[in-house]
Amino acid sequence: MNKRKLKRNLPLHLMLIPGIIISLIFVYLPLVGSVMAFQDYNPIKGFFGSEWVGLKNFEFIAALPGTFQVLRNTIYIAFFKIVGNIIVPVTFALLLNELRSNKSKRVLQTFIYMPNFLSWIILSGIIMDLFSPSDGLVNNILGVFGIEPIFFLGDKFWFPVTMIVTDIWKGFGFGTVIYLAALTNIDPSLYEAAMIDGAGRWKQTIHVTLPGMAPIVILMTVLGLGNILNAGFDQIFNLLGPAVYDTGDVIDTFIYRLGMIQAQYSASAAVGLFKSVVSFLFVSLSYLLADKLANYRIF
Amino acid sequence: MKKMSKGRLVFEIFNYIILISAALTCLLPFVNLLAVSLSNRSAVAAGEVLFWPVDLDLSAYEFILHSNRFIRSFLISLQRVALGVAINIVVIILTAYPLSKSSKDFKSRTVYSWFFIFTMLFVPSMIPSFIVVQNLGLIDTIWALVLPGALPIFNMVVMLNFFRNLPKELEEAALIDGAGHWTILWRIFVPLSTPSIATITLFCIVNHWNAWFDGMIYMNRPENYPLQSYLQSIVVTPESIMQVMNPTDEMARLLLSLSNQTARAAQLFVATIPVLVAYPFLQKYFTTGLVMGSVKG
User: Fold this and answer.
1) Does ipTM surpass 0.90 in this model?
2) Which residues of A are less than 8 Å from B50 in CB distance?
3) How many Å apart are CA A231 and CA A79, to the nearest integer?
4) How far from each other are the two terminal CA atoms of chain B, in whole angstroms?
5) Residue A52's beta-bridge partner residues?
6) Which residues does residue A40 pair with via DSSP β-bridges, in sequence order?
7) Chain B closest CA to A277's CA: distance in Å?
8) Cα separation, A144 vs A78, whole angstroms
9) CA–CA distance, A184 with A177 (Å, rounded to integer)
10) What is the per-residue DSSP string for A203-243?
């Protein structure tokens, strides 16, 4: 019996081969390659021939004047993106849920959901035009209210704010749809019971809708925690200029510049390894919490 | 219908105002982009173009038709989507099926699961990944764009959860009839999973169509850029639009009637069209497929 079962399960092992090979080559191999963070990597000598230098690359990075700032920028931008990407979609899901006409619900969803599917390249092109200080639409509108033009992408205070706001703008439709789906799963008899007890719409929202959404909100919050070092490379890389490095340079853009532009391979790999390890801890923690708080399992 | 209270009426009006403004912020930027691409360059430079073309001018689109760089990269992107998505779907299905078994039926499942869970937790950084792709000799080939992301792990999890929710009796009956796992997968699981596979296909299409960074670092020669990498180069350094190798007379005439802004707007808009075309399908399957795949985590 056991032997037959083994034979029957053989295809299951075979099916996993492509996925395993891909993961081995493109995830596990680079992971092993991260040892270059402890080397003075030389492309000609490779991983095996390069000289080992211990923690020198990490000391070099820590001694750079901008490193701490980069870390601070990353966490600042990522934190507000995580928070905003929960609060804004939850609010919009509640507002949409109040609409009686299903048709307007659907039409509105269709529009707010769209930016999510466009690349940051296209959106960056649009954002550069919209937020331009000379003839951008946003500044034209602000001008109507007598506000002086703001250089959103060139100002140290406004750059991170613009990143946070436009990121939420891109993603809030997607989140709204997810939360709205959670709302439609709330048992209608709960609303009926609340109504019999004399609860108005407002009270129903507080006592039925919000608690009904709580599990998925908690889950999304906890899973967001794993992104604390992801400030959003695709977006920031395309909109960042040297004038706003002080507040806009983040870990990923820093890794790119060190490695790809300045060819400091080992230093870049050291920052990358730092990020991978810290993210690993945060993501693991977030899944652990998700399991404890929301009964969520990855697989 | 019951008569609305006064407070309720005020709320409904405000609610509509907020929701419609939000929808407009998502729509108007694209209307503006289209209007700019269709306008005369001097009207654009003067900031006269809002949501309707001023002095209709199609030369930006003529430019696209004559721009071999745009067309070339567009074709590379199509090729990338076709090849990349086909590989994605096959690898996702093959990986999701065994992992959807219970560890009682498939003992090694736990070990394999941890192997894949680890790839979700630990994301390798840019330079080691680049060196791996380089040493495999994939630079300047389409394989550099489709192989590293061949197994999108989150889509695999959606597929896995969908498989897991299929009635177990189907599989048991087939096993008793002597069917093997290959038969069960292709004859029973795949046909029953079309909504989920459609969702995942659309996810993968959008991902491949929108990807730009891999094209930028893995393609040494700009003529190998997929569309979004090419667009990245013209968005970040606008001067590069106008650099045309050996312009023909036709091209020279067109370049005179263009500005960076109108040419860029037209190219961005054309790159948006495939997503807009796919959008109704995206909407149809996205939520259903996503919700179905994630009900039981």
Assistant:
1) no
2) 137
3) 8
4) 40
5) A39
6) A51
7) 7
8) 32
9) 11
10) HHIIIIIHHHHHHHHHHHHHHHGGGTT---HHHHHHH--GG
Amino acid at B21: S
| Rounded Cα distance, A11 and B184, in Å | 11
Helix (H, G, I), strand (E, B) or coil at A51: strand
How far is A148 from B15, CA to CA, in rounded Å? 30
Which chain B residues are within 8 Å of A120, Cβ to Cβ?
210, 212
Least confident range from A193-202, A232-241, B147-156, B266-275: namely A193-202
Q: Which residue in chain A has the smallest CA separation from B113?
A: A299
- Cβ–Cβ < 8 Å for B80, B206: no
Contact indicator for B213, A234 with CB cutoff of 8 Å: yes
Both tokens assigned to B145: 């764009």
User: What distance in Å separates the CA atoms of residue B246 and residue A107, rounded to the nearest whole number?
Assistant: 48
- Which residue from A minimizes the CA distance to B157? A299
> Three-state SS for A40?
strand
* Selection from A208, A228, A181 nearest residue A77 by Cα: A228
Give the pLDDT confidence of B227-237 residue by residue, as tens digits.
Answer: 999 999 888 87
Q: What CA–CA distances, in Å, run from A64 to A75, A76, A229, A237, B259? A: 18, 20, 19, 21, 42
Q: What is the pTM of this model?
A: 0.88
Residue B231 token pair: 């667009």
Structural domain boundaries of chain B? 1-57, 58-297
Please report which residue ranges of A24-101 form alpha helices under DSSP H.
29-33, 46-49, 56-63, 67-97
Can you list the domains of chain A with their CATH numbers? Answer: 67-294 (1.10.3720.10)
Q: Are B227 and B73 in contact (CB under 8 A)?
A: yes
The rounded distance, in Å, linking the Cα atoms of B15 and B20 is 8
Q: Residue A125: in which H helix or E strand, if any?
A: helix A120-130
User: Quick check: A240 and A231 in contact, CB under 8 A?
Assistant: no
Q: Which two tokens stand for residue A222?
A: 């906890």
> May I ask the CATH class of domain B58-297?
mainly alpha
Contact list in B for residue A122 (CB cut-off 8 A) is 228, 231, 268, 271-272
| Cβ pair A255:B182 closer than 8 A | no
pLDDT tens-place string over residues A232-283 = 999 999 999 888 999 999 999 999 999 999 989 999 999 999 999 999 999 9
